[in-house]
Amino acid sequence: MDYRNKPELIERLAAEYVLGTLAGGARRRFAAWMLQDAALRRSVGEWETRLTPMAVAVGEARPPQSLWPRIAGAISETRAPARAAAGWWESLAFWRSFGLGASGVAAALAIFIGVRPPQVVEHTQVVEHEVVKPVRVSDGANPWQPSYVATLTDGSGKTMLMVYIGRKSDELWMKYEGDAMPVDASLELWGMDEAGQPKSLGLITGKGKHVMKLPVIADKSIAQYKALAVSMEPPGGSKTGVPSGPVMFRGRCHNFW
Q1: Contacts of 146 (CB under 8 A, 6+ apart)
Q2: Are 221 and 118 in contact (CB under 8 A)?
Q3: 3-state secondary structure of 159
Q4: 116-122-123-126 Cα dihedral, nearest 10 degrees
Q5: What's the CA gap between 187 and 202, in Å, rounded?
Q6: Domain 96-257 CATH assignment equals 3.30.1360
Q7: What pTM was computed for the model?
């Protein structure tokens, strides 16, 4: 689809992107265009400004109290022989509700798989048989120790950034999963406290794995943040101290202890 020189189409796509109704391949293509087109990012930012107050006014939706007993009953039923699961177990609405709780587990697993430190293999010769002994190098922050972990996703739910910070460490380890970096802008990482107030943690400097230095250990610099977000900013980062461009990715920050 050629959106250039079609302002009405750009506005419609930007609105659908912010609302979340632009999905699948169309959403991924639009996100790729945003990396290359500053005008497109401005349109998305304007729509976020218009629609965010409406989202704040929407009350929190809680699952019914009967949900967990139904889950427990279904688990018990699966242990009985030759009984196929049906009904609510196949319900799309149930899995959407259950997915929120499962995201914390997914965050921890993603960090261990994608961001944990490398292993050095030590070779020891015993008699005539070679013994391979793995030795973990943590560089001051053992990934099995208490830590803060987060996975940030785009609007379609695709994981774009994985973050790990040991409680006593002043290094933030990240892995950026994006296919490309913006050519005329910067991706800036923000911490969001319970009140939704942002504070910059630094810039994402490239694809793949990176280490970001924190001013103090995580227990003093990260503990207050309940969520992390990445926004598209001018080269070098926001000039105002708060996100000034569209929010590209976001996710909850979990305590792993």
Answers
A1: 166, 167, 255, 256, 257
A2: no
A3: strand
A4: -120
A5: 9
A6: no
A7: 0.49
Three-state SS for 180?
A: coil
SS3 call for 94: helix
Please state, in angstroms and rounded to a whole number, the distance separating the CA atoms of residues 16 and 44: 9
Q: Are 249 and 230 in contact (CB under 8 A)?
A: yes
Residue 22 DSSP SS3: coil
* Chain centroid offset of residue 36 CA: 22
Contact present, 214 and 171 (Cβ < 8 Å): yes
Interacting residues of 103 by C-beta distance below 8 A, sequence separation 6+: 151, 251, 252
The string of pLDDT tens digits covering residues 229-248 is 999 999 999 999 999 999 99
- Give me the residues paired with residue 251 across strands: 228
Smallest Cα–Cα separation from 124: which of 111, 134, 114? 134
Domain segments of the chain: what residues?
Answer: 7-53, 96-257
Whole-Å CA distances, 88 to 22, 75, 98, 102, 153: 27, 12, 12, 17, 27
Spatial CA neighbour of 257 closest among 229, 217, 219, 230: 219
Q: Tokens 């911490």 identify what position?
A: 191
Instruction: Mark the ranges of the chain whose per-residue pLDDT is less than 50.
Output: 82-86, 88-89, 94-95, 98, 101-102, 105-121, 132-143
**Tens digits of per-residue pLDDT, 5-33?**
778 888 888 888 888 888 888 888 888 88
Residue 88 gets which letter from DSSP?
G
